Automatic annotation (TrEMBL):
Coiled-coil stretches noted in the UniProt entry, renumbered to this chain: none
Name the record gives this protein: LuxR family transcriptional regulator
Gene3D superfamilies to which the protein is assigned, alphabetical: Tetratricopeptide repeat domain, Winged helix-like DNA-binding domain superfamily/Winged helix DNA-binding domain
Region (Disordered): 1-33
UniProt-listed GO biological process terms: regulation of DNA-templated transcription
Alphabetical keyword list: DNA-binding, Transcription, Transcription regulation
Composition bias, Pro residues: 18-28
Species this chain originates from: Actinoplanes siamensis
HTH luxR-type domain: residues covered: 825-890
Pfam families given in the database record: GerE (PF00196), TPR_MalT (PF17874), WHD_MalT (PF25873)
Gene designation: malT
Molecular functions (GO terms): DNA binding
InterPro entries hit by this protein: Sig_transdc_resp-reg_C-effctor (IPR016032), TPR-like_helical_dom_sf (IPR011990), TPR_MalT (IPR041617), Tscrpt_reg_LuxR_C (IPR000792), WH-like_DNA-bd_sf (IPR036388), WHD_MalT (IPR059106)
Superkingdom per UniProt: Bacteria
Length: 892
């Protein structure tokens, strides 16, 4: 591989960590990963770059998203099949490129000697015509190293070449190429900000690499505020490394200063001064449309300016919502607004007033309230609250909870003004400040209605946001018990009380009651045009449908909530995370694991510190990891969640869900004894998730070779006797019953259990519970398919999609391994013991012997003895060979 004139960018200007390994020498010119302050391995992106069928790959994102890092890592693995071109003047681009290709192979060098050096495209085309082995031309920072015409000529040469060549471009915006043609021919792979953004796990690895200790929830919040921006997270880690208590202020002024320096040099300095001034003024708004931008700045070309900035990769993105909404990256917005407030306070006030006036007409009213307070228009802000308080005082959470107003309007402000300030804090999720302001308002002279109702709504919302569910239930019940005319202020409290009570009941595991209250809240909200209430109620209804296994209703309802949030300008609401979790659960049960992971990730990004959302998403992602064989990652994620949940006041169903997830993971690892311990850790008289617990226990009993006990445990959940029983649990209970019947030789039991499971699969499309059983479930279905004429389509679909060799994909409910007392035949010298099979499952991952011993609570010497016995019985000489042979024997 040949690399010409690579000049390291700011992404690579860093010093090694103390005691870090020596830098990887690598090919000359390609940035060496060992020189990175912190390099995070990203195999999923490297696999995307390995798509050699695509002639063109474009990695497009603003500065600092890790484009160079990613491409350098990929180039290092190509071993002579790639040339790297970066740096230098535009005028010398073709010379550097053709020289790199010419020196890559002797044949290309001979062809280059006969070509015209002045004709770059023709010279390159001649060289590529002689090549028989694959070659990737990697152009880093293509915006700077080549002009648009040169890039177009290069792309055309690659497109028309007969040789196995591909082009990989890294750029800050959208390259001036006819990408639609490449896309139509299926010759294009695009990686953008969404793909390059660090996940929570990757962000955790980055912070660990810089020796910054942060709880996982704090990392998730910081990652959400940075939107996965690689350099932003690296700068945050650099700043936090010097703080004694980094968890207290993960995004303090020191971090903002570093981010401001970077953005100033890499983004803002490249802009036209007029465009920069426009962005500074536009930073007062959370989201922008062309009309709002024109209103703010007096321009008439707002639509063209916004579209052009996005094409240039200037940290501004178009929102996937009606109305052509755009938004600045949170960090750029914060940096620009800080610059704005330092220079001209009067101009800032005028900008806020313009935005407030625009939102008073266009909505949502809470945005008008925020900007009027920022402009110190106290009476107008109070008037907005007076008109729209039922939709404002629900309470939400925002990524930026800093107060928009830092001082009171005089020594004795009126109560209605203080309530307006409290409403803004409540909308930001800052319940501590909201309660303080509410206390000040209560101490003021009594202003009658609607102030009294507004204060009651505040108390209800703060209790819900703080997770005091029983207090929510009692307060909401008191409101609903008091009759009041619909048009009165007290009557307007009814939809808020219904919503709060429904949410509390849902989180307490009382799904039947929750459904009634949420449905009533949704109906009243629609009648009274309470958008925020309707969105929240609809989103929680979607979560309820998903929990009950009504997957089609969950997806439909979640879509309604997300669409309404986008249409009403309320897409940032934390409650919409429940819609994303509902989608994730449905996709998981449909065995669309990639879609499920993306939706769970989106829910984490918008959780804003909501522990229930974060825990639910973590549990779901753990199940996805188990389904894809990433047991070590699943164990690490659950261990972190268990550690951090110990300091939170979580409702009993959430705590039980975490315990059941741990039991499922132990079962998937082939350790039913440890799974039984997790199940037994909960008092029997206070079981909040009986059906789910029964299914997990049934799987454990099957693994222990006790089929009769397994069928007995799940028997109560095979019918619809209880309205709150999840269809997902019914399907799993049916499969447990069928497997137990097969083990006991009871044909009728097999037929009954499969009938229940297939009926659910036919109605709601469940696939994961079948796929989790691997070849065991497939063989069972095929053996009875001729006698089950009621479900031919679903049986055909299941037998076509369930891989008979994928025993490793055994899910937590239905282990595909044999019972503890059974022996393993085949080419084994002798059967593995139960404990040896448990250790064997952990050998699939990357855990060392010491780590496996810690997980299983046994000594390291015992682990080594088990591993030695496993190798002997399998006839293997090393770890990978043992895992391969075990999979061939269907032991994994």
């Amino acid at each position: 591989m040949t690399i010409i004139e690579e000049v390291p960018t700011d992404e690579w200007r860093s010093s090694p960590l103390p005691n870090s390994p020596a830098p990887d020498p690598g090919p000359v010119g390609v940035p060496a990963l060992g020189r990175q302050l912190s390099h995070v391995a990203r195999p999923h992106l490297l696999s995307r770059l390995d798509a050699w069928h695509a002639r063109l790959t474009v990695v497009s994102a603003p500065a600092g998203w890790g484009k160079t890092t990613l491409l350098a890592s990929w180039t290092h693995h190509q071993r002579g099949r790639a040339v790297w071109v970066a740096g230098g003047s535009r005028a010398g681009f073709w010379h550097r490129l053709t020289t790199a290709v010419a020196t890559s192979t002797p044949i290309a060098s001979e062809a280059a000697a006969t070509a015209d050096p002045a004709d770059g495209p023709a010279r390159l085309a001649g060289m590529l015509g002689y090549m028989s082995s694959p070659l990737a031309i990697v152009v880093d920072d293509c915006n700077d190293v080549a002009n648009p015409d040169a890039l177009a000529d290069l792309a055309q040469v690659v497109r028309t070449s007969d040789g196995p060549v591909r082009l990989v471009l890294a750029c800050r915006g959208t390259p001036a190429l006819p990408l639609h043609r490449w896309r139509t021919d299926r010759q294009l792979v695009m990686l953008g900000e969404d793909e390059l953004a660090l996940s929570v796990d990757e962000a955790a690895d980055l912070f660990a690499g810089q020796q910054v200790a942060l709880p996982r929830l704090a990392i998730a919040d910081l990652r959400a505020q940075m939107e996965g921006w690689v350099t932003g997270l690296r700068l945050a880690a650099t700043a936090l490394a010097h703080q004694a208590e980094p968890v207290q202020a993960p995004l303090d002024a020191g971090v903002i200063d570093l981010v401001a320096d970077y953005l100033g040099a890499e983004v803002l300095a490249r802009l036209d001064p007029q465009v920069r001034r426009m962005l500074v003024e536009a930073s007062v708004a959370e989201r922008l449309t062309a009309d709002l931008l024109n209103t703010l700045t007096g321009r008439v070309d707002g639509a063209a300016v916004l579209a052009d900035l996005q094409r240039q990769g200037v940290f501004i993105r178009r929102c996937p919502a009606p109305g052509d909404w755009y938004r600045l990256h949170p960090m750029l917005s914060r940096v620009l607004y800080r610059e704005f407030t330092r220079h001209d306070r009067d101009r800032v006030g005028r900008a806020h007033r313009r935005v407030a006036d625009w939102h008073r007409v266009q909505g949502p009213p809470v945005e008008a309230l925020r900007h009027l307070l920022a402009a110190r228009e106290w009476e107008r802000a109070a008037d907005v609250l007076h008109r729209h308080w039922p939709d404002i005082t629900i309470g939400s959470r925002r990524l930026d909870v800093a107060p928009i107003v830092t001082s009171m309007p005089g020594p004795d402000p009126p109560a209605h003004v203080v309530l307006a300030m409290a409403a803004e804090r409540l909308d930001a999720g800052d319940t501590a400040s909201a309660r303080h302001l509410l206390h000040l308002a209560e101490a003021a002279p009594d202003e009658g209605e609607p102030a009294a109702s507004i204060m009651t709504a505040f108390r209800l919302a703060t209790a819900r946001l703080d997770g005091h569910l029983h207090r929510v239930c009692s307060t909401a019940a008191e409101i609903l018990a008091e009759p009041a005319p619909e048009s009165s202020a007290a009557g307007m409290l009814r939809p808020l009380a219904l919503l709060s009570l429904g949410v509390a009941k849902l989180h307490l595991g009382q799904s039947t009651e929750a459904g009634w209250y949420l449905g009533e809240a949704q109906t009243l909200a629609r009648q009274r045009d309470l958008d925020h209430v309707e969105i929240s109620a609809t989103s929680h209804l979607a979560a309820r449908y998903a929990a009950l296994g009504h997957l089609h209703d969950a997806v439909r309802t979640a879509g309604e909530a997300l669409e309404l949030g986008s249409r009403r300008g309320l897409g940032q609401l934390t409650d919409l995370s429940w819609s994303r979790l509902a989608l994730a659960e449905a996709y998981f049960q449909w065995d669309r694991l990639d879609d499920a992971w993306c939706c769970a990730d989106a829910a984490l990004d918008s959780s804003c510190g909501h522990r229930l959302i974060q825990l639910t998403a973590t549990i779901l992602q753990t199940r996805i990891r188990v389904a894809t064989g990433r047991l070590t990652e699943a164990h690490d994620a659950l261990r972190a969640a268990h550690h951090e949940s110990g300091t939170a006041d979580l409702p009993a169903p959430a705590q039980r869900a975490l315990a059941l997830a741990e039991a499922e993971l132990r079962l998937a690892c082939g350790d039913p004894a440890a799974a039984h311990e997790r199940l037994a850790s909960w008092p029997d008289d206070a079981e909040p998730l009986p059906a789910q617990a029964a299914v997990v226990e049934g799987g454990v009993l099957l693994a222990e070779g006790r089929p009769a006990a397994a069928s007995t445990v799940v028997a109560p959940y095979l019918t619809r006797a209880e309205a709150g029983t999840s269809l997902t649990c019914r399907a799993c209970a049916g499969l447990v019953t069928a497997l137990a019947g097969e083990a006991a030789g009871h044909r009728d039991q097999v037929m009954h259990g499969l009938g229940v499971a297939l009926k659910v699969a036919d109605e709601e499309g469940h696939r994961r519970c079948f796929a989790a059983g691997g070849h065991v479930v497939r063989a069972l279905i095929e053996s009875v398919a001729p006698t089950m004429s009621a479900y031919p389509p679903v049986i055909a679909a299941l037998t076509a999609t369930v891989d008979p060799l994928v025993a490793e994909a055994a899910g937590p409910h239905l282990p595909s391994h044999q019972g503890a007392g059974s022996s393993v035949t085949g080419t084994l010298v002798e059967p593995l013991t139960s404990r040896e099979r448990t250790v064997l499952r952990y050998l699939q991952g990357t855990l060392s012997h010491v780590e496996i011993a810690a997980v299983l609570y046994i000594s390291v010497n015992t682990v080594k003895t088990h591993v030695k016995n496993i190798y002997r019985k399998l006839g293997a000489g090393r770890r990978k060979e043992a895992v391969r042979l075990a999979r061939e024997l269907r032991l994994l």
